[in-house]
Structure formats: structure tokens, C-alpha cells
């Protein structure tokens, strides 16, 4: 996209960039933009919250890969490659640990059908040149002795790691504040649009915050912001996920040493062991609107399937159950970059990959906000891919 100097001139005393949404995506964009020297403000009634508070934190671009998602794979691998340095920088700046661990991931087949499907996935990985190693059931159990005896095979992906999203959120919020981001702990109730251009937001108390550019990073509610013209963003639907947290009595190492995932009865299951003895089990995938009720059925299904994969899990204390909402776009890929409404930039729709894509989203959006050019890596995820030609014309008229 060509540089537009009008986009780079501040309106006066207000922010140059206003981020709506204080989840990990919004915080990363705000932090990186402030590091670029921009005056940044962020609006969220509870910054550091959002879907990341109930996410497991698997950083799994390879084992999450599905057919036809090669552009998303490239984005995810680019983000994953940045994670160690990204989290080290956060810890150095804030003194807060993010829970980043280079553990690797084991994707397991429990029966013959699963084994055949996993073998096809391995062949797909090999065609793409990915580092994915096939193991027999015996080899898999040698790596993870707590796996069920009937395991038929597995894929070991050494570079699919983990982070603790709750700790990551806290570190990002602190880093953003240290970088000079002005955090407004309030609700944005309306997008302010003047002369077909986004100019800021109105808060619940009537205060209007002006800005040259507005970044919409409000997760599954991004398209619901009052004042947003019709057709600028597609519906970003909420996809409910229930998740469990268990406690492994110390010492922790003998239980699980890496992320373990499988498809059980057609549903995706993963177990993420933390260094402090927490074991995260997730997650359901439910099209239930904005409902975040934890249900007996959801808890039962997760424990039943986890028991089939790792029988000893039912002896562990269950310390927390929760449910959150993933922001899913029409094609389940993120919306990154300028929208059809001049002055409005999207950073939403990350679906299952919000935590994984946090570093790369922050970097790409900060570059676009500072230089006016959307990096090539983000091009496949432009919000324009869902916009009709008459809405796209709005930007050319600005």
C-alpha cells in the first residue's frame, strides 16, 4: 500500500494511534507502536484480559496446521521464530516472567484411523519442508511414559513450544505502560467517524478521545462497535472454548515434559504442562454465540478424552474450569491492516492463533502505523479480502 502522508500527521494534542482492545493483540500493537516513537493510547475496561486469560498458550504453527492454510503457516512460523527474543525482551523490560518454554509438541494417534490421518499430515509436513518426525507408539511412550499403552504413533515437532498467556498479558500491559502508552480503563461505546474517516472513540462517560488512526483489536466484538459503518469489517464470530486446569503434585517432570495433543472422537485435545506444576487441558470448540458458561458436559468430555490419552490424569486435582471466546473470521484467518474506512486499522479475527501470532501482529501493525506500508507477510490477511468494491472506494476518496 502506498504511503499516505496525511495518515502520518497528528491532529494535535491527541494520540497518533488509539488501540481499542487490551488483550494480548491490542497490547502488543500498542507497545510496538510506542517503541516506534508514536503517541499511543489504549482503551479497555480491563486491559490484560480477553481470550488469552483462558487460553492454553500452545505455540504450535506446525501441529495446528490444516490443509489450505499455508499463508497462515508462514505467518505463524514467523511469529514463533520471534517468540524467544520477544519474551526475553519483555522480561528484561518488566521483570515479569512470561512462562515461555521451549518444550516441543507431541501429536499422538490413539487408534488405526488416527494413525492413518496423522501419517497423511506427516506427509503434508514433509512436502512443505517442515521439521516433523514420525515416531512409533513405543518411541512416543519412551518420550512420555504417562501416555496410554495403546498409542499407535505420533509426530514430534521440536519447535512447537508454549507460553503462559496470563503472564504474557501482564508483561505486555506493563511494557506498554513503560513505553508511554496511555491506558484508559474505560469502555469504548462508539467509533467517531468524521468525513468518512475514523477519528477516535467515545467512552461510556461521554469523553471523546481523538486520534489520527484507530486500531480495532476488540476480539470477537470488533465488528459490533457502534459507529462502525456497515460492510467495513465482516462478522467476527465468537467460538466458545472450555478449558480445565489441574495441578501436578511435585516433582513435576515424571508426568508430562512437553505439550501433547491428539484427536479423540473427532475433537481436538491438548495437554500443556507448566513449569510450576499446572496442567492445562483444552479445549472444546462450540458455536454458542457469546455464552461463556462452563458446562458439566464440556468438563466431562475433556476429562474423558484426556483420560483416554493419559490415564493417570484423573488422579490429579481439578483446580479451575473456565470458558472463553475465540474471535473467528469467515475464513478463520486474522484481519490485519488498513480497512475500507480510512484511518481504521484491523487487528482481530485470530481465532485459535491469537497467542501464537502476538509477536508478529505487533511488529507488522507497528510498521504499518509508523511507515504507512503494510509488510508483505501481512498481505494475505488484509481486511479488504471480505470487502465489496464500493466500500474499498472509501479509502481512495480520503
Keywords:
398 residues, FAD/NAD(P)-binding domain, D-Amino Acid Oxidase, Chain A, domain 2, 2 domains, eight-stranded mixed sheet, 8 helices, disordered N terminus
Topology (SSEs and partners):
Blueprint: E1 15-20, H1 24-35, E2 40-43, E3 58-59, H2 70-94, E4 105-109, H3 112-127, E5 133-136, H4 137-143, E6 153-157, E7 161-162, H5 165-178, E8 182-184, E9 188-193, E10 198-203, E11 208-216, E12 237-247, E13 259-264, E14 267-273, E15 278-282, H6 296-309, E16 318-328, E17 335-338, E18 344-348, H7 358-371, H8 389-397
Parallel strand pairs: 1-2, 1-11, 2-8, 4-13, 11-18
Antiparallel strand pairs: 3-7, 4-6, 5-6, 9-10, 10-11, 12-15, 12-16, 13-14, 14-15, 17-18
Helix pairs in contact: 1-5, 1-7, 2-5, 2-7
Instruction: Give the CATH superfamily of the largest domain.
Output: FAD/NAD(P)-binding domain
Name of the CATH first level of the largest domain: Alpha Beta
Structural class assignment: alpha/beta
Taken together, the total number of domains comes to 2
Distance between the termini: 14 Å
Q: What summary fits the major beta sheet?
A: 8 strands, mixed
Proportion of residues in extended strands: 25-35%
Can you give the helix content as a percent range? 25-40%
Number of helices: 8
Net shape:
globular
